Amino acid sequence: MSQANDDSIGSLHDLYKDIKNILNDVDWIAETDEETLLIEFTHYEKRDDLPKGDNAEAKKFQIAKKYYGGIFYLLACGKQKPVDFIWIAESKYLDSRIRSYYRESMTKWLPYKLQERGEINSNLIRHFRIFSVDDWNNEYPQFPLKRIEIPTNIEGGLSDES
Prior knowledge:
Shape: globular
Radius of gyration: 17 Å
Number of domains: 1
Largest sheet: 5 strands, mixed
C-alpha cells in the first residue's frame, strides 16, 4: 500500500518554522510498503530562471539541505524504511543530461560515505534521483503530479474569477 503523508504537506514546514531552527523541510514525504520518499519540487518557467554559476551551486546546496531536514524528522519519528531523496526539477530547459549532472554534483553533499562507517547503524539514504514530472509519473504512478494552468488577468496577476 502506498500513501502520501499528509503531515508532510504543511505541518513539517510549520513545525520547523514554529520552533525557529535551521532545518529545512522537503515539499512532500510519501511512503510505500518498501520505502520512504523525501520529495522536493522546483519548477523553472523561463531559461533565465535556471540557476547558473555560483547560483547553481547555492541552489543545489539548498536542495541538499532539505534532505537533512527531512531525514532528521524521519529518524526522530523512528521511521526505519529505506529513504530515497527525490528532486523533481521541472522545466522544458532541463534535459536528462543536465539532471544527471546535477545529481552527480550534489551527491557529495549527501551522507553516502557517512552511512558506510561502522558506528552508523541507520541507512540514511538509499538513492538520490532527479526527475521531470513525466519521469516521476512513470516511476511513481500511485502519486501522480499534474500540470495546471493558473489563469491570469491582463496585468499578469491572478484574476478575480480564479
